[in-house]
Amino acid sequence: MELQGDGFLLRGWKMGDTQSLQKHADNTAISDFLLDRFPSPYTMEDAINWIKIMQHQHPVVNFAIDIDGNIVGAIGLELREDVYRKTAILGYWMGEEMWGRGVMPKAVALITGYAFANLDMVRIQAGVLSNNPKSMRVMEKAGFTKEGVLKKAIVKKGVILDEHIYAFVRADQV
């Protein structure tokens, strides 16, 4: 599965991606803004295990961000069940050397369109830690709306933070 973006490709994971994945993911400037389940430090074993799991996705909901054959980040959806089955949770990260180039808002828009067209979703939602204004800007550039702030909802590295909730609702569902 591949989704062609403007200057990048969202594609499935390959075992040949391990070195690039490990190189870009092993950075506290990234892990500090993600859920604790994202390993830090990010080892080669973590990269191998991740790719092994991702090679068996059905449907494909997690993509490598490929620029010129190099994996520089990841973007994915967490599908939910029960009463939340039409709402996916969005997560993403990008290697620090790629920040500020405008790739991530385009990747967010691309995966959102994919989810609406192929996964029968009506809402894509993301939670952003209050100490991550750059990610808030990504959400806004991708057309997401801030719906609220969950006060003191997150504990990251011993610090209690607010969570900013952003969402994009399929146009025919508004």
Give a short overview.
This protein has 5 helices and 8 strands. The protein has helices spanning 18-25, 28-31, 44-54, 103-118, 133-141, and strands at 2-4, 9-11, 62-67, 70-78, 87-94, 123-129, 145-156, 159-169.
Task: Give an account of the 3D structure.
The chain is α+β, with helices and mostly antiparallel strands. Helices cover about 30% and strands about 35% of the residues. Helix 1 (about 20-25) packs across helix 3 and helix 4 (about 105-120) crosses helix 5. The longest helix is centred in the middle third of the chain and has 16 residues, at about 105-120.
SSE layout:
Elements: E1 2-4, E2 9-11, H1 18-25, H2 28-31, H3 44-54, E3 62-67, E4 70-78, E5 87-94, H4 103-118, E6 123-129, H5 133-141, E7 145-156, E8 159-169
Parallel strand pairs: 5-6
Antiparallel strand pairs: 1-2, 2-3, 3-4, 4-5, 6-8, 7-8
Helix pairs in contact: 1-3, 4-5
SSE order in H/E notation? EEHHHEEEHEHEE
User: What is the CA–CA distance across the termini?
Assistant: 29 Å
Largest sheet: 8 strands, mixed
- Total number of helices: 5
Overall form: globular
Kindly estimate the percentage of residues that lie in beta strands according to DSSP. Answer: 25-35%
Helix content: 25-40%
Stretches with pLDDT under 50, minimum 5 residues: none
Number of strands: 8
Radius of gyration: 16 Å
Mean pLDDT: 95
Q: Order of strands in the sheet with the most strands?
A: 1-2-3-4-5-6-8-7
Structural class: alpha+beta
Keywords:
8 strands; 34% strand; 174 residues; 5 helices; alpha+beta; eight-stranded mixed beta sheet
